[in-house]
């Protein structure tokens, strides 16, 4: 199939890898350029729930559904919402029909795509904007053994605790660890001054910020491992559109970076990769103009991602407001009533 066409993919994230895999399945040989030296050169982040219409659709299109089934954690769909006294205000064991959202670790998902491939190894954009929220990532390795009381509190899935604009969101990972994000509403200036010289000073800083929380939840901070990573949360403006140009396009975070508050970014990146791959393959087979095809794909990507970007921006504002617990509760009650 069109051996003269060269396709370069910049970035081997979930979006780029899904695209590369779909192209290879159809006989094309894209070259993937990646900054990192290997798929394990850094901590790959936490667990992702795969949504039916995007992440799951992409995994099927990329022909790795069977492999995905081997690493998926159905129990990871468990969800608990608590207040700052650790009282449960909502819980769900997950996994209902269209709301079926099996969890898999990001690193394992990337590996499934890499294993399926024969691997060889600039853009125009608006500037992403700092959302006003930072998340400090902490971990508890081998939680059942090392921290049974924290393991019990978190359970097998997600455990979100919200109070007065603050959030302690924990999730069980496939290696038995617990990963927790502690939110901070701080200015870019404050974030740049957030230089934790060592783990004890980072814990003290977070404990001071979360001083009016129940001791069981403060223990999540107090007893965390020494690997403590502050991250600023950025998003592209909503809507984010650009004039289509021949020979180049954007997918995933490069096209529609959004905060994690809707849990959609990785799912959309994979959808983009799968759909762009299929569109390119069809264009090459049928001789369609490639620029027309990428411009049409960009419109579909925009239509798919816009409502999720709006939801993510809305959730960030409401979940981190004084009434965040109520907002989060009504969000999950709405989802659960849509999928009884
Ligand atoms: C704390 C947090 C929690 C999240 N939770 C969820 C969730 O639960 N569910 C969900 O769906 N999404 C979640 N997301 C969002 C998700 O992580 C991203 O949307 C997703 O990873 C985007 O995939 P991508 O392939 O577009 O980009 P990335 O995964 O960022 O991959 C881009 C790749 O490009 C490489 N690269 C960058 N620049 C260059 C260059 N110049 N040359 C070569 N390579 C380059 C990078 O090294 C990287 O490997 C979360 C995000 C955060 C921060």
Automatic annotation (TrEMBL):
Keywords: FAD, Flavoprotein, Monooxygenase, Oxidoreductase. It holds the Pfam family FAD_binding_3. InterPro entries: FAD-bd, FAD/NAD-bd_sf. It comes from the Eukaryota. Coiled coil: none annotated. Residues 6-72, 247-291 form the FAD-binding domain. GO terms for molecular function: FAD binding; monooxygenase activity. This is FAD-binding domain-containing protein. The lineage of its organism: Eukaryota, Fungi, Fungi incertae sedis, Mucoromycota, Mortierellomycotina.
């Amino acid at each position: 199939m069109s051996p003269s066409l060269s396709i370069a993919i910049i970035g081997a994230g979930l979006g780029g890898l899904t695209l590369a895999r779909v192209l290879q399945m159809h006989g094309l040989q894209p070259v993937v350029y990646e900054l990192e030296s290997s798929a394990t050169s850094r901590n790959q982040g936490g667990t992702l729930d795969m949504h039916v219409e995007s992440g799951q659709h992409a995994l099927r299109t990329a022909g790795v559904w069977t492999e995905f089934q081997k690493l998926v954690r159905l129990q990871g769909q468990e969800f608990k919402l608590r207040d700052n006294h650790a009282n449960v205000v909502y819980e769900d064991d997950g996994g209902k029909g269209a709301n079926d959202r099996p969890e898999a670790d990001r690193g394992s998902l990337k590996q499934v795509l890499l294993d399926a491939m024969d691997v060889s190894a600039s853009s125009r954009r608006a500037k992403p904007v700092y959302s006003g929220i930072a998340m400090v990532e902490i971990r508890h390795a081998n939680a059942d053994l090392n921290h049974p009381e924290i393991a019990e509190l978190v359970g097998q899935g997600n455990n979100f605790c919200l109070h007065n604009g603050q959030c302690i969101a924990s999730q069980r990972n496939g290696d038995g660890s617990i990963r927790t994000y502690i939110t901070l509403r701080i200015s870019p200036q404050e974030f740049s001054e957030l230089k934790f010289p060592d783990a004890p000073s980072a814990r003290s800083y977070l404990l001071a910020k979360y001083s009016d929380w129940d001791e069981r939840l403060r223990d999540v901070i107090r007893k965390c491992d020494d690997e403590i990573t502050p991250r600023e949360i950025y998003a592209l403006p909503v809507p984010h559109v650009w004039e289509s140009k021949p020979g180049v396009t954007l997918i995933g975070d490069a096209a529609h970076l959004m905060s994690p508050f809707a849990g959609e970014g990785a799912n959309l990146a994979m959808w983009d990769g799968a759909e762009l791959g299929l569109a390119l393959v069809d264009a090459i087979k049928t001789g369609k103009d490639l620029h027309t095809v990428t411009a049409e794909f960009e419109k579909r990507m925009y239509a798919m991602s816009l409502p999720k970007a709006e939801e993510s921006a809305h959730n960030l504002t409401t979940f981190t407001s004084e009434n965040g617990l109520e907002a989060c509760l009504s969000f999950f009650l709405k989802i659960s009533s849509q999928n009884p």
